[in-house]
Amino acid sequence: MNKKSEILIVGGGVAGLALATRLGQTMGRLGQARITLIDKSFSHVWKPMLHCFAAGTAQNENDRISFMAQASRHHFEFWPGEVIGLDREKRQAVLGPFHASDGALVLEGRTVNYDALILSIGSCANDFRTPGVAEHCLFIDNLVEANGFNEKFRMELLRAYDGGNELDIAIVGGGATGTQLAAELHKALEIVGLHSFAQTPPSLKVTLLEAGPRILPAFPEAVSEAAKKQLENIKVDVRTSAMVSGADETGFSLKDGTHIPARLRVWAAGVKAPEVTTGFGGLSLSRSGQILVHPTLQSVDDPAIFAVGDCSYIASEPLPPTAQVARQQAHHLARHLPGWLLNQREIPSCVFRNKGAIIALGDYNGWGTLPGGTVFGGGALKGLTARLGHEMLYRQHQIELYGWYRGLMSCLADWIDTLVRPSVRLD
Ligand SMILES: Cc1cc2nc3c(=O)[nH]c(=O)nc-3n(C[C@H](O)[C@H](O)[C@H](O)COP(=O)(O)OP(=O)(O)OC[C@H]3O[C@@H](n4cnc5c(N)ncnc54)[C@H](O)[C@@H]3O)c2cc1C
Asked: In angstroms, what is the span from residue 161 Cα to ligand 1's centroid?
């Protein structure tokens, strides 16, 4: 009897979980391959919501998808663990030991075989080795960091309530993450004010620092301008052409000598692949550590290794690190991997179809762009269409993973939750 092909997917984010679910429904269900997903954590979250979890304006209990539950319903296997290297000759991924949160060893380090390996380990912010950033800044690249930020934000608010002080927060990076976080923090404080210890909540001073000449550089200039105005209306101090040269426990230093005082300092600029890619058996990498792949999504060094989403880089057609790209690449492999594995058919090039982009500044405003350059949102309706579009993207992702019935039930559960719980995280 022929041995079943082994498909190993590392990283259950936007790309990895969609791919595992789709392959499980086809090859897994038909017994054509053994599909294994490995992730550092036990559950998936929709990363584009991390800034809301950080501010506390969304609460992640309902928004997590358990990998084990998803695997058992969709004919794939899940193992928790961190891949720390590859043995390309033996076609094995190397997993580090798995520890409990108290440090106790739970699983020894081990290896997992593959015939096809798909790397979908995402990305993190890039501090470009700016002095003091690693030691003195917070990041919101994953759920643990977003929850960690939220805890610090709530504690600093408490301190500001008690002392009657202003709370100052500086965010580096005027891209989608930093800009949306600035707005969500204001929204959070507005809602906290409704449940306050004192009648007047402390004031919040958010400074947004962007090295380039405008915020939201991936959007048309009109959107950058409108978003800047909106942020300034809610008293966010937006500073463009502000090159950060260092960070310490009091704030950020800029290249022009200015010091920006900040009790909480967030680094949300730049994108790079996780450090571990340098240990992936000598695979060729981009300058930001992303795995170099052909348009077929196969590594330029090894056709049995694929990379999708933020951790991959197509030199002939660089794509932005977005959820839209990650999903389309996952769908492409879900369609073509079975033929490649079972019938040695070549994988066609993955052609990215830009469907536009959306930015939502809390419920203050929002804008979207369509491929032809049309901009929508903003105006008297405060960008309602764009803000709804943003929400729809998340619901579409949930429905893709859960199926229609459970997806819609999950929307209903979230709606009921808003009737029961405060709309900001208070504990
Ligand atoms: C705050 C924020 C807001 C954003 N907003 C938007 C938006 O509005 N629209 C948009 O299109 N994009 C947005 N993005 C970008 C988008 O989230 C990413 O492009 C997308 O998540 C990339 O998907 P991915 O599958 O490549 O990686 P991810 O979704 O990041 O998943 C990576 C997975 O790999 C796992 N992993 C990492 N290393 C290892 C390892 N060594 N071993 C095992 N598992 C590992 C992680 O635990 C994680 O589950 C935003 C990002 C952030 C941070």
From this structure: 35
Q: Which of 246, 270, 294 is the last residue of a domain?
A: 270
Q: What's the rounded mean pLDDT across residues 282-306?
A: 98
Tens digits of per-residue pLDDT, 127-151? 999 999 999 999 999 999 999 999 9
**Is the residue at 331 inside a domain?**
yes
Statement to judge: residues 139 and 171 lie in one domain? yes
Concatenated DSSP letters of 101-153: TTS-EEE--EEEE-SEEEE----B---TT-TTHHHH-B--SSHHHHHHHHHHH
Q: Is residue 281 part of a domain?
A: yes
Give which of 149, 159, 145 is closest to 55, Cα–Cα. 149
Q: Which ligand 1 atom minimizes the distance to the CA of 274?
A: 38
Q: Is any atom of ligand 1 closer than 6 Å to the C-beta of 309?
A: yes
Whether residue 101 is found in the same domain as residue 133 = no
User: What is d(CA 370, CA 39) in angstroms, rounded to the nearest whole number?
Assistant: 34
Indicate whether residue 11 lines ligand 1 (CB < 6 A).
yes
Task: Walk across the sheet containing 83-87 and list its strands.
Answer: 83-87, 92-95, 110-113
